[in-house]
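Kindly go through the entry underneath: sequence plus fold tokens. Please state briefly how this chain folds according to its tokens.
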Amino acid sequence: MPKDEPTLFSSSHREPLAARMRPRTLDDFLGQDQLLGEGKPLREVIRRGEVTSMVFWGPPGSGKTTLARLIANYTDRHFEPFSAVTDGVPRVREITADAEDRLKKEGRGTILFCDEIHRFNRAQQDAFLPWVEKGIVTLIGATTENPSFEITSALLSRVRVFVLEPLKAEHVRAIVERAIEKEGKGKGETGTVQLAPDALDVLVTQADGDARRALNALEAVMEHGRGAGGAPITRDAIEAVLAKRMPRYDKAGEEHYNLVSALHKAVRGSDVEGALYWLARMLSAGEDGLYLARRIVRIATEDIGLADPAALSICVTAKDAYHFLGSPEGELALAEAVVYLATAPKSNRVYAAWGKATDAAREHPAEPVPLHIRNAPTPLMKDLKYGAGYRYDHAEDGGFAAGQVYLPDALRGAKWYEPSDRGFEQEVGKRLTAWRDKLGL
């Protein structure tokens, strides 16, 4: 449609627009080319009618329910929708009994579509197993959560998992344009809504890859425009009528760990903007600021280390400041710490050395402490040579008792910590070299 003319839209149906616009064929389905493009696995399975139980994992509005319905249509199977939010195991038994009867009398299979399957607990998920194994139903589950964490291993071993991605902007745009073309009534008719030229851009942007959100927003805009006197709805008006866009985030789910990982890696990669963005994403989604403060302290010890010893102090201070101020004022302290970490010299040498030391402690858990560095508070212990030969470093020339050994014999000569040449750790390296030279190591 022309870019410089308003778009006309009207609706008098009771059924939601998203339901009316659901694709009826694979060719009408937009997005998920990695699964449904020519020659791709899911498309070929559907075309051949060789559909087995599966789980669709993807964000809201990516087409999980639509795909399940298309599969039922292409394979001529009865489609039975089911929600783990509102239904329970008794309803599963009813559906499977009907499915068994249908298979015997009509020879027709049943697709049991379980939306939000991750809402079922382990016992409830196991209720599907006997019916899936017998082939009474073909289970298609839909989830926005990582199946590795939310679906039982027994059920997971019996299904194929297909990963759906958020729709691209061009797909959302095409879906909205298709809805406008199908539902539009023409200029000047009663009940029509006109969208200004840039209105579609706002709808696409606000959708965040979610086709259902885009179509629901279009309906909301339609209702808003009904009393606008026929004037085209502006970009500002659309932004005002749409609900606030919520960050895609779950403090208890996979996205939580994805964003924390992104923050950590952005700091490690010295990307200030990336680090600030991921910090802001989590805070704006309601993440606990003290949790983030703890993560920031961890980054200081793991990725900065002795390359900049001040980093740890700054991060602990930022934690205290956030604890004192709370949100939103205290968030600036966390941002300051993140910027400092991202711009600081990096070293994981202490982190690596600590890992080697803990490995050694596990592998050699019973090595005796060398006699000369044991404490000898009793006469018996002195008679047993505890502390014999120990030289008090402060009493030695230069404050260093050259030649003393502090590791058990089995670990003598170990070198776990090797400073980098970055930041303050370069100076640490010089000191360590001097000590080791005096020890002859």
In short: Residues 1-13, 185-191 have pLDDT under 50 and may be disordered.
